[in-house]
C-alpha cells in the first residue's frame, strides 16, 4: 500500500460513508478465508504431472468457452443501460500510443445496476483493445458506498477475463485514492491478482497522470478536475514523461 501515516489516521474515521470498523472486520474474515484456502491447497496430496495437465487443460477450455459465450452475448444484447451512464470509456492514448481506458467510480451505481450487463459491456468495450497493450485510469473521486461492488463480483470478473487482459495491461492508475481503495488494492493484488500488483499505481492528483498521458488525451468529467483543483490547487505537479 502507498501513503503515509496521515492516510491511515484519516482512514480511522468514516471514509466516504464507510465504517472502517465494520469494513475491517469483513476484510479480515475474507483474508482469513483466503489464507485457509491456501493452506488447504498446499496440504492437498500431489497428483501426477499428467493428471494436473489434463485438469488444467480442461479447465482452460471451459474458461475460454465461457468467455466466448459472454462475448457473443455482449455483441448482440442491448447494453445501453450501462453504456449510457458514461462511467467506462476509451479516452485517447498515452505517451507510448497505448489506448487509455477511463473508469469513473462515482458514476458506477453498483447497487442499482444489472452487474451481469455491466460485465458484458466491459467485455464489449475491451475485447478489441486488449489484443495489444493498454492502460486503465480509475478515478475514485467523490465515490460513496453505493459505488462499491462486492468482493464476490470483483473476483468473478477477474476470473472470467482471459489471460490477455492481464498480460497486456501495462498500468492501472488509481486517482484520488482513499483508505478503502488502498486496502482493497492490497487485498486484491495479494490474493487475487499478484501478476498485476506491480502495475497498480495510486496517484493523489490528476496532474500526476500527465507524466504518462498528455492532457489533451485525457477526457474526464468536470467534477473530477474541480475536485482536484479544490483539493490540490493549480499546477501542483510538474510532470516528467515516463515510459512505464
TrEMBL record:
Which SMART domains does this entry report, sorted A to Z?
SEC14
Where does the CRAL-TRIO domain lie?
Answer: 75-232
SUPFAM superfamilies linked to this entry: CRAL/TRIO domain (SSF52087)
Q: Which Gene3D superfamilies match?
A: CRAL-TRIO lipid binding domain
Which PROSITE patterns did the record assign?
A: CRAL_TRIO
One Pfam family this sequence matches: CRAL_TRIO_2
Q: What residues form the membrane-spanning segments?
A: none
Q: What is this protein called?
A: Protein GDAP2 homolog isoform X3
Q: Which organism is it from?
A: Drosophila mauritiana (Fruit fly)
The organism's taxonomy opens as: Eukaryota, Metazoa, Ecdysozoa, Arthropoda, Hexapoda
* Gene assigned in the entry: LOC117136045
Amino acid at each position: 500500500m502507498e501513503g503515509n501515516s496521515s492516510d491511515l489516521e484519516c482512514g480511522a474515521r468514516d471514509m466516504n460513508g464507510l465504517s472502517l470498523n465494520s469494513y475491517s472486520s469483513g476484510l479480515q474474515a475474507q483474508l482469513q478465508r483466503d489464507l485457509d484456502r491456501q493452506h488447504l491447497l498446499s496440504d492437498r496430496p500431489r497428483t501426477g504431472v499428467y493428471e494436473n495437465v489434463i485438469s488444467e487443460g480442461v479447465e482452460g477450455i471451459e474458461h475460454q468457452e465461457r468467455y466466448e459465450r459472454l462475448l457473443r452475448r455482449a455483441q448482440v444484447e442491448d447494453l445501453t443501460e450501462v453504456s449510457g451512464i458514461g462511467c467506462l470509456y476509451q479516452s485517447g492514448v498515452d505517451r507510448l500510443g497505448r489506448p487509455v481506458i477511463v473508469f469513473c467510480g462515482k458514476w458506477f451505481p453498483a447497487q442499482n445496476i444489472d452487474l451481469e450487463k455491466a460485465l458484458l459491456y466491459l467485455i464489449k468495450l475491451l475485447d478489441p483493445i486488449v489484443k495489444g497493450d493498454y492502460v486503465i485510469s480509475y478515478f475514485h473521486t467523490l465515490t460513496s458506498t453505493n459505488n462499491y461492488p462486492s468482493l464476490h463480483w470483483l473476483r468473478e470478473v477477474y476470473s472470467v477475463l482471459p489471460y490477455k487482459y492481464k498480460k497486456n495491461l501495462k498500468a492501472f492508475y488509481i486517482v484520488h485514492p482513499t483508505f478503502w481503495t488502498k486496502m482493497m488494492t492490497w487485498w486484491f493484488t495479494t490474493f487475487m491478482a499478484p501478476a498485476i500488483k506491480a502495475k497498480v499505481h495510486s496517484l493523489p492528483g490528476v496532474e500526476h497522470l500527465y507524466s504518462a498521458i498528455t492532457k489533451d488525451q485525457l477526457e474526464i468529467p468536470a467534477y473530477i478536475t474541480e475536485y482536484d483543483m479544490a483539493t490540490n490547487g493549480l499546477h501542483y505537479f510538474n510532470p516528467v514523461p515516463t515510459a512505464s
